Amino acid sequence: MGVEFIGQVSTRHSSEIHPASGPAIDPAFLRRFVTAHEDAGFDKVLIGHSASSPDGLQVAGYAAAHTERLGFLIAHRPGFTAPTLAARAFATLDVFSGGRVAVHTISGGSDADQARDGDHLDKAGRYRRTDEYLDVMKRTWTSDEPFDHHGEFYDVADVHSVARPVQQPRIPIYFGGSSQDAYRVGGKHADVFALWGEPLAETAEQIAAVHDAALAAGRTTLPRISVSFRPIVGATDDEAWERAHDVLDRIVAAGGGGGSFTGRTSHRQGHETTRTNVGSQRLMAAAERGELHDRALWTPTAAASGAAGNSTALVGSPETVAAALLDYVDIGVTTFLLRGYDPLDDVAALGRDVLPLVRAALPGA
Fold first, then answer.
1. What is the C-alpha separation between 251 and 238, in angstroms, rounded?
2. Carries keyword Hydrolase (predicted)?
3. 290 by DSSP, 3-state: which?
């Protein structure tokens, strides 16, 4: 199996260095964004989620109608839609898109953002709910007979869906998180477990924790592993570092980020999530240990933005960044989520200059 490359799209142009402008939902921009990823050779794109962002299923449906091959990883928070209803919605889109849908399960790292949609469960409760939610969702996709489920959060009877996904046995489940609860629930359910970009040693420790949790859950097939980075690439290493410091200066000038993919300011999101989100805490801890780790991992961008999301950079020439990605492949990473600080322009550059180098270096290429 080769390495999977995932980008990230939004319905308007924004990042930590590009304050959001224009309509919150810009169909023309979205078409350009997904087409750029498809042309660049990405396998999928992530459609993010927050309590203020456009609905991800509808965004994916529109994007699927304007692409042919690209897959859609739709961020989804359990708890706001019944798992049976969500299963039917995802299965329906999977059919209409020709089997191009995956679910990125996020239990919720920000108490404040959960509350915007009326969810006041504590973090441990959210993970218990996610565990039960995924049990019901997967069973809705796969059960040939009507079933009942009576649990802590969901009580459903005589469930049988005629909406079945194209993908068999079911739609892939991706899972994000860095806490012990995340390892436990994601280790049980995830086809792909997603981590943010930490140094190699810490990433290897997290991979081991996820795999240990999967074995404890009785699995015989271990989750694949995704890691997220923000590449800053130049024609040479020197040019890339010059660009990296310019990006950092612009993040700082914007107070941590003038806009985010979810529609809120990164500065505000960072203050909310750093307190409760273990992933953010881990990125900040890596930044405190040093600016440069391993071959090319640079942490000041995470520190400047409050580590509100995947925010550590890989800095260097295409050859340096490709080699850094291959270092992660060597420790067991199978998937990379890559998005630039210049969201649209960086897609073409990554597809032209970096992705082919990584693919060419893989065994059997």
1. 20
2. no
3. coil
Alpha-carbon torsion (329, 344, 25, 303), positive or negative: positive
Look at the block and give the residue holding tokens 């679910």.
Answer: 103
- Determine the Cα angle at 132 with ends 144 and 307, to 5°: 125
- Whose CA is closest to 191, among 286, 278, 71? 71
Q: CA geometry: angle at 108 spanning 346 and 50, to 5°?
A: 50
* The two structure tokens encoding residue 107: 């239990």
Sequence-ordered strand ranges (E) for 138-275: 147-150, 155-159, 173-176, 192-196, 224-233
Q: Which pLDDT tens digit goes with each residue over 91-108?
A: 999 999 999 999 999 987
Q: Is the pLDDT of residue 127 over 90?
A: yes
Residue 133 · residue 189 · CB < 8 Å: no
Nearest partner of 66 among 94, 34, 42, judged by Cα = 34
Residues, the chain: 365
Neighbours of 138 (CB within 10 A): 17
Q: In this structure, which amino acid lies at residue 310?
A: N
Instruction: For residue 155, list its beta bridge partners.
Output: 150
CB 346 within 8 A of CB 339: yes
Structural domains of the chain in order of their starting residue, each with its CATH number? 4-227+317-361 (3.20.20.30)
Q: 37-51 pLDDT, tens per residue? A: 999 999 999 999 878
Closest CA to 353 of 364, 338, 341, 365: 338
Put simply, whether the predicted model's pTM sits higher than 0.85 gets the answer: yes
Neighbour tally for 280: CB within 10 Å = 26
